[in-house]
Amino acid sequence: MAASFAMQSILASSVAYGASVKRTNQFLPLQYAPSLQRYSTMKVRCMAGEDADLKEQPKPISTPPRPRLSTKFSDVLAFSGPAPERINGRLAMIGFVSALAVELSNGQDVFAQIGNGGIPWFLVTSAVLSLASLIPLFKGVSVESKSEGFMTSDAELWNGRFAMLGLIALAFTEYVKGGTLV
Fold this sequence. Notes:
single chain
């Protein structure tokens, strides 16, 4: 490596300044150094060809590491946390479908369903779904990691939002109408 550096320094000084430069290295006599004169008007340009070997290979795409999910109770159930909207959306999806099913089978509107024993069913369903939704979050499993193909976490959020709006619209329509929707 030292020999390579010495050779490069000799050649560089001889080419750049001509042969009139004093010899800076005692290992190589001056007669072996090239004696080219310096041309200030000469410019050297280099362009790579379109050979297949010279093309750059694409770099592998690496995904940045995801930050570790917090499993603290206050973080999971925070207003902007992962649990509240998902749990409410899941409850709304089950509530909307069951409200329509009971209305079609028994002919009772939403308020009659709540008055005729719907509150205990709502409390049991809420407790089971809340626990089933919270246990994976407290273990550190994110909802996005389990979403694939057609059933994505974003689709679940949007379905839950539409179910919340549908349940409110169903109750409001039945209240204004004064009876069942169907």
